[in-house]
Amino acid sequence: MRNLLTTALAVAALVGMAAAAAAQPAPALTPHEGDFVVRDFHFRSGETLPELRLHYTTFGTPRRDAAGHVVNAVLILHGTGGQGRNFIRPEFSGVLFGPGALLDVSRYYVILPDGIGHGKSSKPSDGLHARFPHYDYDDMVEGQYELVTKGLGVDHLRLVMGTSMGCMHSFVWGETHPGFMDALMPLACLPSQIAGRNRMWRKMVIDGITSDPAWMGGDYRTQPRMGLRIAADMLVIAGSAPLYMQKNEPTRDAADAYLKRVIDADIAGLDANDMLYAVAASRNYDPSANLERITAPVMWLNSADDFINPPELGMAERFARRLPHGRFILIPISDQTRGHGTHTLAAVWQDRLAELLKESAR
On the chain, which terminus has fewer CB atoms closer than 10 Å, C or N? Predict the structure, then answer.
């Protein structure tokens, strides 16, 4: 299973994660996969799709109260280029989903959607290529809402959790559907316009693809490999963790070998249109003006070694003060952290999740 851009963004997190998280192998869980089709889906760009396919993976079963409302649904949202099944790994599901764990799937109904343009949901590489609607984060959240409510019949969420892009989606969820969830746990993002260095490396990815002569306006016959190489190189840097990588690639030759191995693997599984659309979807994200609309308790975590969301900006602390019931926690750099990829190491932050579930219990 390839994690597409999420693999590149958190590439340092993909080597030795299980040992760092002290996680046992993922329990023998039985996931259910399915598709929900939304008819005549309208995008914010004005474009439409006659049929929007939304793929999902679930664990457990929904439980309802006396009034018929679902009380145990947990929505977990993946990062850029990823898919819901990316969370089925020892360092995440192996820590959170098993018997007696915080999100024990014998008690919770866990929903792992593939966002628009990702995984097995409708995406450019299905056939429309550059004619696929230019989706953004608001479209992706609205698709998730359609899936949850109409596709799965869930009218309330116990928790919305998201990593990286999913972190940003969590803030959008809190603003556009306040009251729909009991709690929010955004992991590894900022609730502000993508600007500064964060925008620059994304623009480098976009320009690297579109400036490749093989791009052909998105109607390429073979993948534009030079553009994908530029994109993959930038994503390795964006997802890097200096301390971890220095310790694990301590020589020139080790670093060169690691880079070749990772880049070759990433390029082999990437589609240029899918990558371009996924990165470009953040272009108009900016929930900063409406943070006061978020009524649910928020436990928001970033890691101090995150290249994409560097703590020295001081932005998180300022935004957190505007959340009516929110807390921001900066995870210090340690042997356990993996830069941006710390968002998937549940052992690092599960105590904070336990606090959030306890304080938001009804």
Answer: C
